[in-house]
Amino acid sequence: MDVICKKCGSVNDYRIEKRAKNNCAFCNGCDQFIKNIPYKSQTILYFGKYKGMDILEMTDISYMKWLYENASSLKEHQKKALNDRMDFLKNEGQ
User: What H or E segment, with its residue span, contains residue 16?
Assistant: First the structure.
């Protein structure tokens, strides 16, 4: 299912930020809130240095980059979550 921004019309160009009990989708183009995505454990890591941690809570950009490039067992939604989180952290200056 495509995620479409109602403000600028971009399709599937969004980042996910964790807010309370929801993952919130925000447009990367215009920074507009798109929709709440019910919190699920789909972005929990089940292996490695941060086993049991949600990708949306990680702050170690160098590890996330390594994980994205080297972990063959990652699912597409986990790769997207890693990429979104790294972009968010870089934009926040961390």
Answer: strand 14-19
Per-residue pLDDT of the chain (94 residues; tens, 9 = 90+): 788 999 999 998 988 888 877 788 999 999 999 998 766 556 888 888 888 888 888 999 999 999 999 988 888 888 988 998 999 898 876 4
Of 7, 2, 17, whose CA–CA distance to 81 is shortest? 17
pTM listed for this prediction: 0.56
DSSP result, 22-72: EEEEEETTT--EEEEEE--GGGB--SSTTTT-BGGG---HHHHHHHHHH-T
The number of CA neighbours under 13 Å toward the Cβ of 39 is 11
